[in-house]
């Protein structure tokens, strides 16, 4: 399913996708992620234009690369305020509140942003999903359009962690 590459290559692949106008996105997999088959952190680039998925494994999450590509892909700046915004969708508000609860407990968590073209998304909509490490449930938010406001809040919370769970 994946073509395994090193850390330098995964970044080059993402930047190449962006420069040639490909449909692409990325995922950070924690060792406990339901999509991860290894006990390491994974950084995935999905090149949907070429229907190819690349992964780079490491002992630590590639948070800095994630921040860089998030700004490039969705124009989201995780340095902006991560306070709750009134224009969050109700389902994303639940995700953000749960993320804040987990952060306040020191529990590491992760989430996914699944575009409609994502290999892990069968809804045809944009989907944000938080994998709850305590309840082992998944909180989801669906939207017809890119949920930029929701992403700004949830991604800021996510990247406020030093690691992911």
What does this structure look like?
The chain is an alpha+beta fold and 165 residues long. It has one domain (3-159): Signal recognition particle alu RNA binding heterodimer, srp9/1 (2-Layer Sandwich). The chain is 32% helix and 24% strand. It contains 4 helices and 7 strands. It has helices spanning 7-19, 63-74, 90-105, 148-159; strands at residues 3-4, 24-29, 41-47, 52-58, 110-114, 126-131, 138-143. A 4-stranded mixed β-sheet has the order 1-4-3-2, covered by helices on one side. Strands 5-6-7 form a 3-stranded antiparallel β-sheet, with helices on one face. The longest helix is centred in the middle third of the chain and has 16 residues, at 90-105. The two termini are 23 Å apart. The mean pLDDT is 92.
Give the topology.
Blueprint: E1 3-4, H1 7-19, E2 24-29, E3 41-47, E4 52-58, H2 63-74, H3 90-105, E5 110-114, E6 126-131, E7 138-143, H4 148-159
Parallel strand pairs: 1-4
Antiparallel strand pairs: 2-3, 3-4, 5-6, 6-7
Helix pairs in contact: 1-2, 3-4
How would you summarize this macromolecular structure in one to three sentences?
The chain has 165 residues and is α+β, with helices and mostly antiparallel strands.
Which architecture per CATH?
2-Layer Sandwich
Would you count the extended β strands for me? Answer: 7
Total discrete domains = 1
Distance between the termini: 23 Å
**Helix proportion of residues, in percent?**
25-40%
* Biggest sheet descriptor: 4 strands, mixed
Structural class: alpha+beta
Q: CATH class, please?
A: Alpha Beta
Cα-based radius of gyration, to the nearest Å: 15 Å
What is the number of helical segments per DSSP (H or I, 4+ residues)?
4
SSE order, one letter for each helix or strand: EHEEEHHEEEH
Query: What does the oligomeric state look like here?
Result: single chain
Query: Which residue ranges are poorly predicted, with pLDDT under 50 across at least 5 consecutive positions?
Result: none
Mean pLDDT across residues: 92
CATH fold naming: Signal recognition particle alu RNA binding heterodimer, srp9/1
Shape: globular
Main β-sheet, spatial strand arrangement: 1-4-3-2
Strand content: 15-25%
């Amino acid at each position: 399913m994946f073509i395994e590459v090193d850390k330098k290559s995964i970044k080059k692949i993402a930047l190449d996708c962006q420069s040639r106008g490909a449909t692409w996105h990325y995922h950070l997999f924690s060792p406990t992620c339901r999509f991860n088959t290894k006990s390491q952190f994974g950084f995935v680039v999905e090149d949907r234009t070429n229907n190819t998925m690349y992964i780079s494994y490491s002992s630590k999450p590639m948070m800095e690369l994630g921040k860089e590509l998030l700004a490039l892909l969705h124009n989201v700046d995780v340095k902006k305020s991560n306070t709750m915004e009134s224009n969050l969708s109700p389902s994303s508000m639940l995700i953000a509140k749960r993320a804040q609860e987990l952060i306040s407990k020191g529990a590491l968590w992760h989430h996914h942003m699944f575009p409609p073209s994502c290999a892990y998304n069968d809804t045809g909509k944009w989907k944000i999903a938080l994998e709850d490490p305590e309840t082992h449930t998944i909180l989801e938010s669906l939207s017809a359009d890119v949920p930029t406001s929701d992403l700004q809040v949830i991604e800021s919370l996510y990247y406020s962690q030093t690691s992911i769970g």
